[in-house]
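Fold Annotation — chain and its backbone

Fields — amino acid sequence, structure tokens

___
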Amino acid sequence: MALTLQVGDKAPAFKAINENNELVSLASFKGKKLVLYFYPKDDTPGCTAEACDLRDNYHTFLANGYAVLGVSPDTAAKHQKFIAKHELPFSLLADEDNAVALSYGTWGEKSMYGKKYMGILRTTFVIDEKGKIEKIIEKVDTKNHTSQLI
């Protein structure tokens, strides 16, 4: 499945549990701007670089009225360890069945070393206060992701 959402589209509603097993939905962010980023796996080099870049610039997001939320297929328990290890100030959703990723078109075919497999296509969505997609970044620079967003 390829990314079919466009800037200006209504962001798909979602519900998933975070690292504390609390249910989080898109509706929880109504009236706020949201950086929703999809990444493949906790504690891998690129995903750690991306999360730490967002962490290091978190005050900038807050100052501009943005909440930050990460999504991967990892479990809530794995997210808890990742957050603690890297002192992440934002929540991570456990999308173990890939339902959120599928609704955003970020679950698809990837290839590594010539092998094809299904996985998360690293993508970030900026969603405005009304739930509309303001920006989509498909070519994420994991070490400088904040500069792509702001």
User: Anything to note?
Assistant: The chain has five helices and nine strands. The beta strands are 15-18, 23-25, 33-38, 66-72, 91-94, 107-112, 115-120, 123-127, 133-137. Helices lie at 45-56, 58-63, 76-86, 99-104, 145-149.
